[in-house]
Amino acid sequence: KYMVVQTEQDALLLENSLIKKHQPRYNVLLKDDKTFPWICVTKDRFPKVFVTRQYNRNGSTYFGPYTNVKMVHSLIELVSGLFKLRNCNLALTPENIQQKKFRVCLEYHVGNCLGPCEGFQSEQDYDHSIKQVKEILKGNINSVIVYLEKLMHENASGFNYEAAHLVKEQIESLEQYKSKSTVVNPAIHNIDVFTIIDKGNTGYVNF
Question: What is the pLDDT of residues 85-108, one digit of tens each?
Answer without folding.
Answer: 898 988 999 999 988 899 999 999
